[in-house]
Amino acid sequence: MPTIPIPADPARHAGGCMQPVLLRGRVDHIDGATGELLHRYTTVHEPGGVLPVACKTRRASRCPPCAEVYRADTYQLIRAGLSGGKGVPATVAQHPCVFATLTAPSFGPVHSRREKDGRILRCRPRRRSRDCPHGNTLSCRQRHSRDDPLLGEPLCPDCYDYTGSVLFNTSAPELWRRFTITLRRALARQAGMSGTALAAQLRVSYAKVAEYQRRGVVHFHAIIRLDGPAGPATAPPAWATLDMLTGAIVQAASTVHLETPAAPGLPARTLYWGREHDIRPVTATGDLTDAKVAAYVAKYATKAAECTGTLDRRITPADRLADLPIREHARRLIAACLRLGRLPALSGLRLTAWAHMLGFRGHFSTKSRSYSTTLSALRADRAQHQRDSSLAASLWPVSDSETTLVIAHWQFAGQGPPPALLSAAAIRLTGPSSSSPPKEASHAPASADCP
Ligand SMILES: [Zn+2]
Ligand SMILES: [Zn+2]
Ligand SMILES: [Zn+2]
Fold it and tell me: What is the CA(142)–ligand 3 centre distance, in A?
């Protein structure tokens, strides 16, 4: 049996992760013909006897270095779908493509910050505003600063439709699914052909990201692109224009709806998208460039519901809602989830399990199959480049035998830096180079914060 190479710095293989998964175990390479043990890697010789592996979370609130990797990867694959690269031809940039925002409807007036021509407008000036039944004025003449804690707070929490808000969050992924179906139908109608005939000439590709507004409702930003029948490598027909795409999006977004289940004391509701649809073309030189859009989507792909002031973890039966260190508005939204979650008719919505996400249980970033490359393909690519590292070499030594069996035995040994690396990790995490992004994404411009 050969000697076992010991990685010089196993923590490096967790990529600066702040909460690596710790594995204990071994990998055996066995000659399939003779049964001889050719090589063994074991974690016994690692510091603390464990191998740290990056947590690979997308969430910046949990592990900034891993989220940075996720952000940079997302940036690359979103940008590839806009201007080519990573296996997508550059001609994709000529396809009709828009960046659309589908918002949630109003669930009651909230404090907000709006700008017009560089000026901050008053929040909600209503000269003849009547007080609500709870004695609150539903008018606000303030010009809120960007970090005003009032932003997203209802003008009257007792009037605010908390039930509607969490029902919208839980229904948003289904509403999006119906939107994509209706969008194809709207395009077929505009082109005067059947759905099948349309699919033979045109494909709709998209990538979308969910974003929480401060009021605790999700909305979706989506890149929607028209391709030829075989995806980004084929041109869409000449009649498929930007105007046609925009018109079909407006039509689909304003007609799509869904009915929530009725329960005792809770009538069924019909949910729609909000009336404001923001649809802007993505171009190489205009106001909204591919780099800007990719940066925007990538940034939101690493966020969850943080800006709403909710909890970053599931709520357990041991939690006392009143004691949780969260914003009052978030507390009421969570309470609405827990209340509705107890109704058997609504059990399918899993509102109790997703109360900390204010009802939303969808994926934060999704894309259609033909948008561009996939995150796993990007990561496999990088893993291939890393194969020459000392650790990888000991896990997967080059073997010329086609009959070598690789048998891994892994055990979960916890999460967090192994005891022997704690001091070293502390130095690394405070250092400036802990999260330097990959070169290609380093010039990605930063984008705006939560609205
Ligand atoms: Zn991590
Ligand atoms: Zn206000
Ligand atoms: Zn009120």
Answer: 19
Over the stretch 195-216, which tens digit does the pLDDT of each residue have?
Answer: 999 999 999 999 999 999 999 9
Between the CA of 168 and the centroid of ligand 3 the distance, in Å, is 21
Please tell me the distance between residue 201's alpha carbon and the centre of ligand 2 in angstroms: 49
Ligand number, closest to the Cα atom of 153: 2
Question: How many whole angstroms from 133 Cα to the centroid of ligand 3?
Answer: 5
Average pLDDT of the chain?
84
Rounded to the nearest whole angstrom, what is the distance from the C-alpha of residue 108 to the centroid of ligand 3?
Answer: 10
Residue 430 pLDDT greater than 60, yes or no: no
Taking the centre of ligand 2 as the mean of its atom positions, its distance from the CA of residue 153, in whole angstroms, is: 8
**Confidence band for 60, pLDDT divided at 50, 70 and 90:** confident
- In degrees and rounded to multiples of 5, residue 402 shows phi and psi of -80, -5
Q: What are the extents of the domains in the chain?
A: 10-57+381-418, 89-107+161-316+363-371
Relative to the alpha carbon of 158, which ligand is closest? 3
